Amino acid sequence: MELVQQVYWWLNMAIYIRDYVKGCHTCAQHKHQNWKTPGTMLTLPILEGTWEWTQLDHITGLPTSQGYDTIYVIMDRLTKMSYFIPTTTCTMAKELVQLHLKHVWKHHGVP
């Protein structure tokens, strides 16, 4: 584009040059790939029961309410049933595990 602009100009020049280069077989053969080769897509396993596979997330940056500023979200991948548990940004991993187990076991009797 820069080389052509040094000598020529016309309306919609960038679109014309882009389309011309896209259609050039020599350019396509010699162009260096500047992107990562995509990985193989894997299928997710078929779930047989609820709470077999959960998805976890945190909602942060919330205004403090009753001492909490974060919501810990636990979602069942099969049913999409979710729990929203108030917590803080200072909660450690060990405490999150306890919160997780407490809610899933309490409500679903998961051993």
Average pLDDT for all residues: 85
First and last CA, distance:
65 Å
Secondary-structure-derived class = alpha+beta
Q: Could you name the CATH class of the largest domain?
A: Alpha Beta
Strand order of the largest sheet: 1-2-3
- The rounded Rg comes to 27 Å
Based on DSSP secondary structure assignment, what is the total number of beta strands? Answer: 3
CATH-level-4 superfamily name of the largest domain: Ribonuclease H-like superfamily/Ribonuclease H
Count of helical stretches: 4
Q: What is the third-level CATH name, the topology of the largest domain?
A: Nucleotidyltransferase, domain 5
Number of domains: 2
| Helix percentage | 25-40%
**Uncertain stretches of 5 or more adjacent residues:** none
So what's the overall shape? elongated
**CATH architecture annotation name of the largest domain:** 2-Layer Sandwich
User: What can be said about the biggest beta sheet?
Assistant: 3 strands, antiparallel
Summarize the structure in words:
This protein is an alpha+beta fold and 111 residues long. The protein folds into two domains: 1-29, no CATH class; 54-108, 2-Layer Sandwich (Nucleotidyltransferase, domain 5), CATH 3.30.420. 34% of the residues lie in helices and 17% in strands. The protein is built from four helices and three strands, in the order αααβββα. A three-stranded antiparallel β-sheet has the order 1-2-3, with helices on one face. The longest helix has 16 residues, at 93-108. The radius of gyration is 27 Å and the shape is elongated. The termini are far apart.
